[in-house]
Specification:
The complex is a heterodimer.
Chain A: H1 2-5, H2 12-27, H3 31-52, H4 62-101, H5 104-111, H6 115-151, H7 158-166, H8 171-197, H9 203-232
Helix pairs in contact in A: 2-6, 3-4, 3-6, 4-6, 4-7, 4-8, 4-9, 6-7, 6-8, 8-9
Chain B: E1 2-11, E2 14-24, E3 29-33, H1 40-48, E4 55-60, E5 63-64, H2 70-77, E6 80-83, H3 95-106, H4 111-124, H5 140-152, E7 158-162, H6 170-187, E8 190-195, H7 198-204, E9 207-212, E10 215-220, H8 224-227, H9 231-237, H10 241-249
Parallel strand pairs in B: 3-8, 3-9, 6-7, 7-8
Antiparallel strand pairs in B: 1-2, 1-4, 4-5, 9-10
Classes of the chains: A mainly alpha, B alpha/beta.
The complex binds adenosine-5'-triphosphate and magnesium ion.
Adenosine-5'-triphosphate binds at residues 11, 16, 34, 36-42, 85, 196 of chain B.
Chain lengths: 234, 250
Amino acid sequence: MLSACFSWPDKFSVFWNHVMKEMIRLGVKSLGIVILMSAFMGGVIVIQTNAAIDSPLIPAYTVGFTTRQSVILEFAPTIICLILAGIVGSSISSELGTMRITEQIDALDIMGVNSASFLILPKIIAAVIIFPILIMYSMATGLVGGWLACQSLDNISSQTYLMGLQWYWDPFYLQYALIKTAIFAFIITSVSACEGYHASGGTLEVGRSSTKAVIYSCMTILLTNYVITQLLLL
Amino acid sequence: MIEVKNIFKGFNGVEILKDVTFTFEAGKTNLIIGQSGSGKSVLTKCIVGLLDPDRGQVLYDGRDLAAMKAKEKKAIRTEIGMLFQGGALFDSMTVIENVEFPLQMFTKMKPNERRDRARFCLDRVNIKDKDGLYPAEISGGMQKRVAIARAIAMQPRYLFCDEPNSGLDPVTAIVIDNLIQEITQEFNITTVVITHDMNSVLEIGENIMFINKGENWWVGDRNSILKTENEEVNNFVYVSKFMSQFRDQI
Ligand SMILES: Nc1ncnc2c1ncn2[C@@H]1O[C@H](COP(=O)(O)OP(=O)(O)OP(=O)(O)O)[C@@H](O)[C@H]1O
Ligand SMILES: [Mg+2]
């Protein structure tokens, strides 16, 4: 089915319109929750790291350093993507599942539209473009959240935190995180789209397919995360 | 003209269609009638290629559907208009966008030409001032009519209507029946109408196949159906009080 999905769209203008719409639906509409979660996550990481390394031997800027590493390498790309798998994955698979059982997909096929490419490809492309942007927002707000948390702690000043953030920075970390995100975006959209597209039966099946979509995308993300990290960060 | 030859189709070991053979003629309204569950929708889906028959052939003006390459199949699909039993309008598009959609995908029409054509089709099914509404915001009968407008928007050569007037009041039902017959004759379309409404049968039944338990049971037209000796067809036609009184008179 993926091969049918990657065939050239029937009409490019219509296709591009869809990509734009999906970007708004998948990306912009998830921005709020992503920012909220990231800010709190950053704050909590700061407080926990600070509590854990309460030793005079470890410099205070370690808190900033640790926060940056965990937010950029793991929390923003992986954890937020897992959450997006829940939000976006279930919405994609229930949308396509409903279209399947109400014969809307058959109607597309009958007209001669390649329904797989028409419905799925815009979602995949939109997600692969918009998720990395979302994740960059998530990183930024995570770090800001951490900085806000610093204000409530006595033993670490803003300056120390900011110094920690910049300590031993390698731009490849960002690349690694964004590559990861793009791959996760592909996984989430393609897995959930497949689940929905192949739903059959009634509304119960649609519900079941969206549950499966979320579970399968999360599993695949966790596994892929492990593999990518092994490959890229060795 | 569409020829169906010796079609068999089963699901999970249960045979639904058993050796159906029939010719749907061009320029005529061809009816498939039969009881609920007799296999009418499955047969239509086999004809248009949404389901693959287990055995048998479907010929569109002599061209075998199963033997066609992807490109030819695609070409023939742009010549098919289909009304699904449930309407199958796209939820995410408004009424007018639904009707414009095939035009947008497969013609080089400009946006205002598309809009004019879509308005014209909606006019023919008596839908006015509903352009900007979504399918969920109009009534079931209206959805059905919008779906008909979408099916005829591309001026198809082959038109399939699965119960075009179920859920419509008698007045609108006749309007739709007549519309289907009109465009069939006007453009020499091969039209296949699935129905179990006797009014439609008598109104537009020029070539009728009665399907019973998945078999082609009886073939005729709106005149011969009233006089047939076939028991199952008689039970189907004269089941209502009105129709049985009508039989006593003739
Ligand atoms: N996808 C499917 N899987 C399994 N069985 C099916 C499937 N589609 C249809 N059937 C079975 O095929 C039989 C015929 O169904 P079909 O939808 O063709 O009936 P119909 O003649 O159109 O009836 P109605 O007038 O109620 O629409 C039914 O018994 C149905 O259970
Ligand atoms: Mg049916």
